Amino acid sequence: NMELTKNAIKTLYDSRGESSSAEHPILQVINVKPVQAQAGTRYRVILSDGTHFMQAMLSTQNNELAANNTLQRWSLIRLLESICNEVNGRRILIILGVEVVGESRTKIGDPKSIEGGNASPSASTTSAQPSNSSSVQPMDISSGSNGPITQSTGRTNSALESSLFPITGLNPYQNKWTIKARVTAKSPIKTWHNSKGEGKLFNVNLLDKSGEIKATAFKDQVDRLYNLFEEGKVYYISKARVTMARRQFSTLDNEYELVLEHQTEIELCSDEVSIPKVNYNFVRVADVEQREINSTIDLIGIVRDDNGVNEIIAKASGKPMKKRELVVVDDSEKEIRVTIWGNDAEEFDSSGNPVVAFRGLRVGDFGGRSLSLTMGGSVKTNLDIPETTKLKHWYASQSSDASYTTFSSQAIGSIGQQSNTRITLNQVKQDNLGSSEKPDYFSARATVVFMKSENPAYPGCPECKKKMVNDENGWRCEKCSKQYPEPTWRYVLTASVEDATAQLFVQLFDDQATTIVGISANEAMRLKDTDADAFSKAMNEGLFKTYNFKIRAKSETFNDTTRVKYSVVEATPISYVQEARDMVTTLDKLSI
């Protein structure tokens, strides 16, 4: 017999602030509706206090409650945190924190829409909002050819201070907000050229007490804003566009990012004390093995060895790229290889065994575990933080010939060696398997999604299996110098395989292709010549089936072009009994 909180909807509708500052109201859900957005499914909700109801939207982190029907029609909820925003002239409550506390069989009371004349006046006629509200006071700007040009006064703006918004509260459903944040990283200007045109961009990482977010400026806005931002300075920022984060280009723990546009307003702030300077989440070297492959981490350690700068050819662009491999240790008395790229590699100075803080390292499995700096990562030397002092004192106490353990004993698979441990296809690409002189072998579970059927097989010699030539006397093997009435057709089939992380084109030879297609190459070619529909059906029968693959990766050069070729060595259908046993064994190890 839980009672709804009286007048809660009107309070939420009028406040346009965070409900967490007041009593957490008990409300009833009177409707839930999934809607398709660019970033995926979102859920619209109608909330009632028995007297009024209003429109609301679940934040993405709460989607699971609606998806699994924990939160459904007639549910009773405790609203823990919310923000009321104006979207297209209507006030929408964004539900940031919610707890389902019960359910009812029907609607409680006879609620009326809060927008039916009972709402308070619009925001433009109300007084100033409290802290963390989404309203923003006008900024002092002048107009330029590319939009507003900020006036960097360097003072604390009291009008803006009264309406600041936390970075973690930003989402695409807000249209009025101001953040006060420190620039913790600023990228060089990057240019691109492709079939759609060309352009340039740069990005900054912005930090406040609540969290961090990436902001990017494109094309004309690069000229307007690049020199305005200084790393380490604090700024007021408003009127930027909030979009879903492109995780492949960002290492920050935020599902959103900002796009700086012509109307974006930026003002320098002199109050730097209240905003933190750094936001690292360091992982000790010994604990890296507990992190998932391809996850990103922060790490701080002593550079014990530097292998210098080398140049490689990037597979994606075909352009030369600088890399530097460092050996880093910390007081867990374990060492790990860290690879940095581009300008970071060229400009890095390892003299004096500096303490280096890495932001945004991707975990790989070369040598058991290795780390590589991501595109959005950063390298800072001898930062003025307690961790630096601690590591310097520790390393000074070590002898010059001290030895440190490596991850080699837990190696998942290294260059030129065969690996029986299953990895993801994205891991294959990230670790550049097959890019060295020796081939790499790896195991992966993947699904066949496409097979090229134009020329799936070649006419092979029944004895030596070499390709035969058809002349006026029949089929002739040049190697054996023998003539045959018919060849033995053998598959050389190109297929696309995928897992949840990436896609690869692989080559299937006769034994492996026969396993997947389900018929011999002789039968396939007979159907191809006599019954095109039956041939197409037979080839399609092999699609969308999952196998455990063992694959060979090896660089090959043709017409001065080098690429990695992936050849299937073994394709085994999934044994669900064995897979279940393997999972149980893995879980048993984790519970020890």
Automatic annotation (TrEMBL):
CDD domains: RPA1_DBD_A (cd04474), RPA1_DBD_B (cd04475), RPA1_DBD_C (cd04476), RPA1N (cd04477). As part of the replication protein A (RPA/RP-A), a single-stranded DNA-binding heterotrimeric complex, may play an essential role in DNA replication, recombination and repair. Binds and stabilizes single-stranded DNA intermediates, preventing complementary DNA reannealing and recruiting different proteins involved in DNA metabolism. This is Replication protein A subunit. It is found in: Nucleus. Its main location: nucleus. Residues 136-156 have a biased composition (Polar residues). GO terms for biological process: DNA recombination; DNA repair; DNA replication; telomere maintenance via telomerase. Residues 286-382 form the Replication protein A OB domain. Belongs to the replication factor A protein 1 family. Residues 4-102 form the Replication factor-A protein 1 N-terminal domain. Component of the heterotrimeric canonical replication protein A complex (RPA). Residues 441-582 form the Replication factor A C-terminal domain. Residues 118-135 have a biased composition (Low complexity).
